[in-house]
């Protein structure tokens, strides 16, 4: 994996996402009003992330060479998300697939991308035209139309191992470095900061409820093996797409930490090496779009190709009660239940519950090996539920 601090492509990708966030190009007046109301106030902050496709006209960008802006292929912003919250394990385990537990912007981008892919597949199934996918002749699988690469811009370095040194250096009380409190067998977010290269849960205050959700660093590292697609979508696509680039703020990139997180800590068994698609990390020196310090409670999900926006609060649609028993109509379109419903329309197979659907995916064995190669993954939150095939 390479880190390039001077590649012009990083700024071009970041600018495309920031421009779409500041001036959404595909929203009507009502949706635009909702979007603007959900942005952080001047006293608030959040994380901005966006997924961009890079159409390369059958000439993939050479990840070993520096690119100039004048030679940059066409960029299309597919999804833009904001967010920096995570829901506690106690709420996930009672949600029946209706709570979005990880509300960090970069993970929301991947969930919304999978929603977009499933929407496009179902459109093709209903004889509509898709700008993203085609259905291959003689097979039920789908294929991406263009010879594209994908880049993920994030306005902050991902939480977890990629930013451990940054977090450690920000603490006045250095004794927290050596606390080794674990959650479900995994280091808890901000504890044990001297233990570099470790899998961690999402950071949180020491008095915050326990979450088993793994850090964004760990999840993005895993995506180098399993692709951008979730287990629900993976087998529906021929040649699943992988992230080629990760674009991060230049002044916050610690090259040693980045290389360790996405490459050096991986103990690669031979049977896993063919799945490995290493990221290239690019730098952006564009200023952060947020000036406040109080974390925003809201998360924006915006998909320009579908003129779609949804705002979340506490893991459900904004304005809806976030109780233990979440009503069907109050959940997000990127919840596990909603994504499973979209996926079930595209497969002739029957599955009893969500775990069976997810674990039957051909990528499951790769995911298990990759988690072991990255480090001690530990337990996750149990969120199984029965599936409705109607």
UniProtKB/TrEMBL annotation:
A to I editase domain sequence ranges: 79-295
A GO molecular-function descriptor: tRNA-specific adenosine-37 deaminase activity
GO biological process per UniProt: tRNA wobble adenosine to inosine editing
Pfam family name, one: A_deamin
Protein name according to UniProt: A to I editase domain-containing protein
Annotated source species: Ogataea polymorpha
């Amino acid at each position: 994996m390479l880190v390039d601090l001077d590649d012009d492509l990083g700024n071009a990708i970041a600018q495309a996402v920031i421009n779409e966030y500041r001036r959404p190009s595909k929203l009507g007046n009502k949706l635009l009003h909702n979007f603007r109301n959900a942005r952080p106030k001047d006293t608030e902050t959040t994380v901005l992330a966006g997924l961009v496709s890079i159409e390369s006209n059958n000439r993939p960008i050479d990840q070993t060479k520096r690119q100039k802006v004048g030679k940059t292929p066409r960029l299309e912003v597919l999804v833009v998300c904001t967010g920096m919250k995570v829901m506690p394990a106690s709420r996930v385990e009672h949600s029946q697939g209706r709570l979005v537990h990880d509300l960090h912007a970069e993970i929301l981008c991947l969930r919304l991308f999978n929603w977009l892919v499933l929407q496009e597949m179902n459109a093709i199934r209903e004889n509509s035209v898709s700008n993203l996918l085609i259905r291959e002749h003689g097979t039920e699988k789908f294929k991406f139309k263009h010879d594209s690469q994908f880049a993920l811009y994030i306005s902050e370095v991902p939480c977890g191992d990629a930013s451990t040194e940054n977090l450690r250096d920000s603490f006045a009380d250095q004794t927290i470095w050596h606390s080794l409190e674990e959650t479900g067998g995994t280091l808890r977010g901000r504890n044990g900061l001297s233990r570099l290269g470790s899998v961690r849960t999402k950071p949180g205050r020491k008095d915050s409820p326990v979450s088993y959700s793994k850090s964004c660093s760990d999840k993005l590292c895993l995506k180098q093996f399993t692709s951008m697609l979730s287990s629900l979508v993976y087998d529906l696509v021929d040649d699943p797409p992988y992230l080629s680039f990760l674009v991060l703020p230049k002044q916050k990139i610690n090259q040693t930490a980045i290389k360790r997180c996405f490459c050096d800590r991986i103990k690669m068994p031979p049977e896993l090496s063919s799945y490995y698609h290493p990221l290239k990390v690019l730098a952006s020196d564009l200023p952060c779009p947020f000036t406040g310090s109080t974390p925003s409670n809201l998360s924006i999900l915006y998909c320009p190709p579908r003129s779609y926006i949804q705002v979340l609060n506490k893991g459900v649609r904004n304005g809806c009660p976030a109780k233990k028993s979440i009503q069907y109509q109050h959940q997000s379109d990127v919840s596990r239940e909603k994504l499973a419903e979209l996926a079930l329309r595209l497969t002739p197979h029957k599955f009893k519950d969500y775990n069976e659907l997810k674990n039957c995916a051909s990528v499951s064995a790769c995911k298990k090996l990759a988690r072991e190669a990255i480090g001690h993954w530990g337990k996750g939150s149990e969120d199984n539920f029965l599936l409705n095939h109607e």
